[in-house]
Write a structure and sequence with these properties.
single chain; 383 residues; 2 domains; two-stranded antiparallel ribbon; elongated; disordered C terminus
């Protein structure tokens, strides 16, 4: 987790309703002898008691019935199943230790997974679900943003936006971000519709980088600790990050490598405590953020540095130094709002701590890029 979320960040009421309904069903099933509406809760709407969407929506009801058919026969075993799920609701504890997560019996896994996957993919979007929750996922996303500084930035990576809002539209009509399962739904069906298992993420983190990776198990199926990205956890790694660009030698530059003056970029967290460093390693593997940052800095170093420092082709070396000092005197106000802003600021912090000899090696690269940009502008303007 790059940035911690506000401790008051709300969970999604839609998923809370669906998860509560699952728990209600499992508890009611302990002593039940028939599958009927009494296995499902009721809610008040417009002064009337209504039965849960999980009963009134036929496809969802059929998924619950399939799980009912797979339940063990004895009350003791059914009670044990209910208690297994109920007592494992506090997801965050599994990220701070290496205890085993609850496992379903083999004959229950498939119907349980089928049910909770259906709740996530289909039931969550039903009108009756929104009615029962008195909210929607779209509304939750807007609340999520507002509580966190009205930022659209993905707090997992700091490189991409979650979504974009449009003018004159209600919360319900706005686009929303992807909602990532913190614990993958294929391996942990108990948590597929759990409100503590979702965080809005950018498309890159969710679909491209993480996919179906298991954050709590690494190579050789070894259990490990990881960042839990939601409250109550406030763990993060931004305060330890260091971005060090490494430049090509003069021989390489003279050999024609001016277009790519950065040979590599080192993204490290040198002062992180041991327990945080362990979680940073998992975050790095799962979301591949340092790799993404390194490539971005290699590709855009000169343009972004010159742009951030407001340099032009008339500036001298002393202007460059002064602008660098000015830019790093305090943290930018938009560091949790603007894409790449945090990582570029950390890069500038590293540069500001270097001596004049180091900076003099960089200055010709910036001058060249600035003159090249001016030449391109002249051609575009005058042909």
């Amino acid at each position: 987790m790059l940035f911690p979320l506000n401790p008051n960040t709300p969970q999604c009421d839609v998923f809370k309703v669906l998860n509560d309904e699952l728990l209600y069903f499992l508890e009611a099933s302990v002593q039940a002898t028939v599958f009927d509406e009494n296995l499902f809760s009721q809610y008040l709407h417009n002064g009337q008691q209504k039965r849960s969407v999980c009963w009134n929506n036929q496809p969802t009801r059929e998924k619950f019935e399939a799980l009912w058919q797979a339940l063990p026969q004895s009350q003791q075993e059914r009670l044990r199943l209910f208690e297994l799920v109920r007592d494992a609701q506090q997801i965050n504890i599994y990220f701070d230790n290496t205890s085993l997560l609850p496992e379903l019996d083999e004959d229950l896994f498939a119907p349980f997974k089928s049910l909770t996957s259906h709740l996530f993919t289909e039931t969550k979007d039903r009108k009756r679900t929104r009615e029962q929750a008195r909210s929607s996922i779209q509304e939750h996303f807007q609340d999520f943003k507002r509580v966190n500084g009205n930022s659209q930035l993905c707090f997992l990576c700091g490189t991409s936006l979650l979504s974009q809002d449009r003018v004159n539209l209600s919360d319900e009509e706005q686009w929303r971000a992807d909602y990532d399962h913190v614990l993958c739904k294929d391996k942990y069906p108990i948590y597929t519709s759990h409100p503590g298992n979702f965080i809005p993420t950018c498309h890159i983190c969710n679909s491209k980088a993480k996919g179906a990776k298991n954050v709590l198990y690494g190579a050789r199926n070894r259990r490990r600790k990881a960042f839990y990205p939601l409250p109550p956890s406030q763990e993060s790694c931004y305060q330890y990050a260091q971005v060090e660009p490494k430049f090509r030698g003069l021989a390489e530059l003279h050999g024609g490598e001016w277009q790519d003056p950065i040979a590599s970029t080192s993204i490290t967290f040198p002062d992180s405590p041991a327990d945080i460093a362990e979680k940073i390693d998992v975050w790095t593997e799962v979301y591949q953020v340092p790799s993404r940052v390194e490539k971005y800095v290699i590709t855009h170093f000169c343009e972004r540095l010159a742009g951030n420092l407001h340099l032009n082709d008339q500036d001298e070396f002393e202007d460059f130094k002064q602008q660098l000092r000015w830019a790093t005197r305090s943290e930018p106000v938009d560091i949790k709002i603007t894409e790449w802003k945090f990582w570029l600021y950390r890069m500038q912090i590293f540069l500001a701590n270097q001596d004049d000899d180091y900076l003099r090696d960089i200055w010709p690269l910036l001058q060249w890029k600035l003159s090249l940009a001016k030449e391109e502008d002249m051609i575009a303007t005058f042909g």
